[in-house]
């Protein structure tokens, strides 16, 4: 998790850091190319980006919030590729009941579950 928040009136150093977060991979420092950046969601002043490094192929989610002339961004490393991110963004959240029944099934029927995923 890499987080950076600008004050209301960002200094030029702060702006440079924001720019670097979205232009360079936090893992290998390679420059991001434009074609590796996809906008997943966009609302007024807010963008959720999926950025894939052309160097190390590590992906991050970046949430960019623009407010009164300052820009804040939060980056989070993910193992989701772009198509996974788009597919799962539209999926329903997993409920507690689903997790509980899955946990119960693993405890009681683990051998059948293992046979099922090995098929
Ligand atoms: Zn990289």
Describe this structure in words.
The protein is of the alpha+beta class and about 120 residues long. The chain has two domains: about 1-80, no CATH class; about 90-119, no CATH class. About 35% of the residues lie in helices and about 30% in strands. It contains four helices and five strands. The chain has helices at about 10-25, 80-90, 95-110, 110-119; strands at about 1-5, 35-45, 45-50, 60-65, 70-80. It has a five-stranded antiparallel β-sheet with strand order 1-5-4-3-2, sandwiched between helices. The two termini are about 35 Å apart. The model is unreliable at about 5-20 (pLDDT under 50). Bound molecules: zinc ion. The site of zinc ion has 8 residues, from loops.
SSE blueprint and pairings:
Layout: E1 2-4, H1 12-23, E2 37-43, E3 46-52, E4 59-67, E5 70-78, H2 82-89, H3 96-108, H4 110-118
Antiparallel strand pairs: 1-5, 2-3, 3-4, 4-5
The chain binds zinc ion (ZN).
């Amino acid at each position: 998790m890499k987080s950076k928040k600008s004050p209301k009136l960002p200094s030029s150093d702060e702006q440079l850091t924001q720019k670097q977060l979205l232009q360079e991979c936090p893992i290998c420092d390679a420059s991001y190319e434009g074609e590796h950046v996809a906008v997943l969601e966009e609302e007024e002043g807010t963008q959720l980006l999926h950025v894939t490094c052309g160097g190390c192929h590590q992906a991050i989610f970046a949430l960019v919030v623009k407010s009164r002339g300052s820009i804040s961004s939060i980056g989070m490393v993910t193992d989701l590729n772009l198509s996974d991110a788009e597919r799962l963004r539209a999926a329903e959240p997993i409920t507690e009941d689903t997790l509980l029944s899955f946990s119960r099934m693993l405890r009681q029927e683990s051998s059948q579950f293992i046979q099922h995923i090995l098929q």
